[in-house]
Amino acid sequence: MVPMLMSFSPWEHYPSLEEDRLIELAETLRHTRDRAVEVSFPEDGDGNWSIGCRIYERTIFALRRASQATPWLRVLQETQHLRLTFAIGSEPLKLYKGDPDDVPGRSLVRSFAELRQMRLAFQEREANAENLSLRIAVESDDSGRATQISLVEVDEFGETQRVYEIPRRATNVVPMVAPPIDLAPPTLKLVKKRKKEEGLEQAGDNRDTGTSK
Amino acid sequence: MNRPATIGTPALPSNKPFLGDRLQLVREFKGLTQRELGNLLSVPAARISEYEKSKRPPTEAFIERLALTTGFLPEFFAKKSVDPFLESECSFRHRRDTTQKLKDQVRAHASLLGLVIEQLREIVDFPTFLVPHIPASTTDEIEVAAEETRRNWALDINAPILQVGRALERSGVVIVANSVDTFKIDAFSRFGQASLVFMNRGAGTSSSRWHFDLSHELGHLVMHRHIWTGSVETEKAADRYASAFLMPRGAFLREYGNRPFSWEKVFELKRRWRVSIAAVVRRSRDLGLIDDATYRRSYQYMSYKGWTRSEPYEFQFQEPELLDHALQAVSREPNGIGKLCAKLGISFDAFQSFVPGTFISTYLPEQSLFLVKP
Fold first, then answer.
1. Which residues from A are below 8 Å from B162, CB to CB?
2. Could you please report the per-residue DSSP string of chain A?
3. Closest approach of chain A CAs to the CA of B68, in angstroms?
4. Who among A180, A181, A190 is closest to B123 (CB)?
5. Terminal CA-CA length for chain A
6. Among A2, B33, B78, B263, which has the minimal tally of Cβ within 10 Å of its Cβ?
């Protein structure tokens, strides 16, 4: 949560950044991160470094794979294999792990691929947004699972201007959860008691029908 | 030497028959070899063998010593032959290194309980036996058999069962916790006059494991009636049945959803469905929700965390109730347990050595039950 920062609707300022696209991107990132965390075993020596590396490389893979089936998503060609810059529509984006209001310096560096893409994006952007960069901030819990993914608008001095907390994918499919079956104990009856009751019933029936032995 | 005139049930000097199979039953229940029993009673092992095979009638003095040593009164050995729990008709689940002696001991225990239940049926009306017979061997048939069992018992196919033991007992299956102190035999069941599920209730038995074992034995009762069990196939089938009975596929698939595998979810499903996390992971793989690699890693992780021996979030244990309730009902009758012991020909001490239950705390044995030497 970043209460001090101004929230905004990205698609009003960056037409490529439609809400559905951001949600889908966030779900992909979340899913990839969670899967990577699941196969990490801190007890066997996995630490932040190995878990982080696995998440990062898997994320690159997941975005490349998603970009093949998603026309609005592209992974930009970088000179370095493990550098990740991607674009939603015309807007270039980069990822970092951390708070939206604390963009790390290394994430502010613009690569050639990003600069090239920004030139295209400027045609769509508002005039006063030329010096702003867009970043995706991933916050996580102690285990490494994503807790919140946000779109961060940051200026050339590294100051966060606006933040959009990407919501979880809304689902109207709520699984039907039946209440558990709570059984009563098995019942038993003494044979003589049952026979006595049957005898009484028999006698009652005989009285009703007017018969007697 | 006194030899019987004819081969068959020899007559005691007092003209009471002595049934060798009952001697064998008592010896096996006590966990003794023929030699060990012979040593206790000062007779050679060969003599015990002859008595057991009814080739020779024992002396009155032997029967008295036998009664004093074992707590099984002379009348016990003069009653009709026992309906023994044969290995061939029991679905036995045990470790491979279980000795024959231990298996015999557990079967003898079950046979003795069978005698008690048979006697109890004359005093108490047990629930009618309502376990359906649905032979099944393929995966799909087993899933359907488990679902059909739930339908037969009017148990919602989408809901977890809080007390699996009660589901069985309400359908006439008597569940008995094993009093033979062993961790090598998990459980066995037998369909027949007294359909019984015999479970090991060791100190390490978890509630979720108990649920699964009960369902496994139920699987044998449903699918493998009159079939020799114990093979890898029948055990796998019973395991699959147990999974399907506890976590019906439709409901499980719905509740698992399309989220990726996570321990958080496994524990959530465990708490809801009252099963072990191993059962949840296995079910997830059986239904294609996780791949083989994830399954293997999960097991490695469970083993590493020690969850295969003891796992967190266990629920309250539900003790078997049917036999205990029957005995309590009998114990509320004037000298009810005493009369039951007398009918069985067993001293109270011997009775409570193989019959588990809370009735013991409320029962004060009558003096007449003790064996008094004339």
1. 180-183
2. --TTSEE--HHHH-TT--HHHHHHHHHHHHHHHHHHHHT--GGGT--HHHHHHHHHHHHHHHHHHHHHH-TTEEEPP-SSTT---EEETTEEEEEEES-TT---HHHHPPPHHHHHHHHHHHTTS-GGGTT-EEEEEEEE-TTS-EEEEEEEEE-TTS-EEEEEEPPPPP---PPP-PPPB-PPPP--EEHHHHHHHHHHHHHHHHHHHT---
3. 33
4. A190
5. 87
6. B33
Listed range (A54-68, A177-191, B185-199, B287-301) with the worst mean pLDDT: B185-199
Contacts of B322 in chain A (CB under 8 A): 186, 188
pLDDT > 90: what percent of chain B? Answer: 29
**According to the model, what pLDDT value does residue A207 have?**
60
Confidence of residue B96 (pLDDT cuts 50, 70, 90): low
Question: CB–CB of B10/B4 below 8 Å?
Answer: yes
Residues 41-80 of A with CB under 8 A from B: 41, 43-44
Q: What is the CA radius of gyration of chain B?
A: 23
pLDDT in tens, B69-79: 888 988 888 87
Q: What is the least distance, in Å, from the CA of B301 to any CA of chain A?
A: 8
Q: What is the pLDDT of residues B121-161, one digit of tens each?
A: 889 999 988 899 999 989 999 999 999 999 999 999 999 99
Give the tens place of pLDDT for each residue, A156-172: 888 998 999 998 876 55
pTM: 0.64
Q: How far is A9 from chain B (nearest CA, A)?
A: 28
Residue B58 DSSP class: P
**A35 part of contact set with chain B, CB < 8 Å:** yes
Query: Complex ipTM above 0.90?
Result: no
B336 residue type, one letter: G
Q: Smallest Cβ distance to A181: which of B125, B159, B260?
A: B159
What backbone torsions phi and psi does residue B194 show, to the nearest 5 degrees? -120, 95
Hey, is the C-beta of B244 within 8 angstroms of any chain A C-beta? no
Measure CB to CB from residue A180 to each of B162, B261, B294 and give the nearest one. Answer: B162
